[in-house]
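agent> Task received from the user: take the single chain below, predict its 3D structure, and emit structure tokens. No templates, no multimer pairing.
agent> Plan: (1) validate residues, (2) run structure prediction, (3) serialize to tokens, (4) report one or two observations.
agent> Step 1 OK, no nonstandard residues flagged.
tool_call: predict_structure(input=
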Amino acid sequence: KGSLINDLNYNISKLEVNNLLFPDYKNKLREYGIDISHSEQSWHYVLFYLLLKKNKYKNFLEIGTFDARFTYNLSKYFNGEIITIDLNSSSDEFENSYSRKRKKDFVLKRNQLIDKGNINFREMDSFFIIDEFYNKKKFDLIWVDGDHKNPQVTFDIISSIKLLSKKGKLLIDDVIPDSV
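)
tool_result: status=success, residues=180
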């Protein structure tokens, strides 16, 4: 329990240093089902809410939709376009990643969450994002949360840098080192 409180205080201090907090932020977060004091709350929900409330981003690219819970939550408070990509659900890579054994149920639930006006879901391998978007679209915010291992994560990061707008931000979820 002490570790959770230390983590919470550490995270809050980092948000303060980066000028991302604002009055009544805890209650505003709760309006979107985000509770920073809950031990299983993923902090990327907190970070993106605060980041998007402080900045005027118009478009967002998410590499790695997974079950779309994050994408759905984001769509509730982000008014811009969200493009989210994930592997084609008929591919072996899709079925064999993240233990998606009950693929039909998984895809059905995911598709229900991404069926919103500002979410544009594309089934594609992130290996092709340069082909898909380069010289066609720049993104204000990119979240790399697809494959967490090399060489794919390195490729996703390099590709994302090429797709950022001039003042765009690139955020990366955990990366698994080769030694693991």
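agent> Step 4: summary for the user.
The longest helix spans residues 2-17.
agent> Done.
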